[in-house]
Amino acid sequence: MERTCVMATPCACCSCFMLAGVALVSAPTVLCCLHVISAVLLQEVHDTFVVHGSWTPQDKSEDKLKDAVMLTFNTLCGVAKNMFLDCVSVLGTSSRSEMMAIEEVLWGDQGGVQSAFKELQRRALVSLDEDDDLMVHDVILTLGRAILFDRTSPFYGSRVWEEGDGKLVQFDQALQKPIVAIAITLKWVSVHLADYNRQLLAKLANGQGYGRVQLLLGGSTWVHLSSSNLQRCGLQKLCLGRCGRSTYTAPLPTAILQMTALQMLDLNDSRGLELLPEAFGKLTALRNLRLCDCVSLRSLPKSFGQLTALQKLDLSWHQQLRSLPESFGHLTDLQELDLSWCTQLQSLPESFGQLTALQKLDLSYCVQLRSLPKSFGQLTALQELGLMGCVQVSSLPQSSGQLTALQKLNLHDCEQLVFLPESLGQLKVLHTLDLSGCNRLVSLPDSFQQLTALEHLNLGKCDQLVVPPRLCERLTGLVLLNKRGSNKVVLPPELQ
Length: 496
Hints:
There is one protein chain. By secondary structure, this protein is α/β, with parallel strands linked by helices. 22% of the residues lie in helices and 13% in strands. The strands form three sheets. It has a 15-stranded mixed sheet. Strand 4 and strand 5 form a beta hairpin. The N and C termini lie far apart (77 Å). Mean pLDDT is 79; it is low at 1-31, 48-57, 186-191, 207-211 and 220-224.
């Protein structure tokens, strides 16, 4: 009898062996999913190889593999379970950054999502390819979706997505209960099928079924969104990143402006979007707004200040935005603001100081920004401030000393920065300060020695900076100090 040689290679994560990409183990108690599945396969290999000299799956292998996946799935925490089901259904081949952004919206803080994803990787349920895009093994994908198809499962019908031909999966079942997420493009399908899918979506809008949708992931053009009447289904979260990516002018669909229940809106990379209408201020339930890389957006409407529930706002990588409306100061619940790489932004409104809940502010590489408003010191909740690469900023306002909650201050490559205010010493909890590349900075204020909480200090490449030893004598908590390229910085002996 001719016998077939079975090739095995060491597994990268443990001491077992891999057969055709699947691990071979002898103990089915191992919780790595592929390892458990492989234990089932290994028994079949052993039973059939001895008799036939080769191996083919037996009829009951599908049930065995499903049981193995369920064994692993049931040991996951709640966030990891939901994240896995998103990976096998609505996320597709998202990049890691896109996936994390979406999952954070659905399941809470980034730390919990990050740890859940690491758990999925450790169990070999998901992985990342060389481009950092999501990968799920075909076997795992099929068996993971089986959980969503199982009528006895609490997750039954909770996700809706498109098959390869563009047909929506699970839609009628999903109408019977709340929907976690819908992923739809309506773009690369036939006209007939696109119309059919839109009719299905209209059932949500017309109240046929449960009608609660947490998240819609769209990859279509905005015209399809406008024709779906989804504004009537109480949608809470809408991700349309890249939908408007084009060089033509793409006005925001009125359908979005009518989604008054929206808590999260992602319009990242909408490169054809030139303006937001005044009606945008009607989205008063918004908590998270992402407008990153909307390179054609020239301004924000006056009504923007009506978004008083907003907590996170991403306006990074804007090439046309020159200023913010005075009403911006009305966003008193705003906690995180990213304005990095807004290369034409010249100033911040005086009302900016009214953002008293702001904890993180990134103004990195706002290369036209010349100064900060006098009211800046009113940001008493601010913990992190990034001014890296703000090459026109020559000084910080004297009111900066009022930022008593500030822990991290990054002034790297602020090439025009000449001096720091004497009030700097009032930042009693500041533990990280980066002044590297501040070529014109010649001295530090006498109050610098009062920064006794400082742990990380970067003074590298400050060519003109002169620091006498006495200014650093009290900085006994320093863990990391870099003064490379700053020959005029003299440290006391204890810090050498």
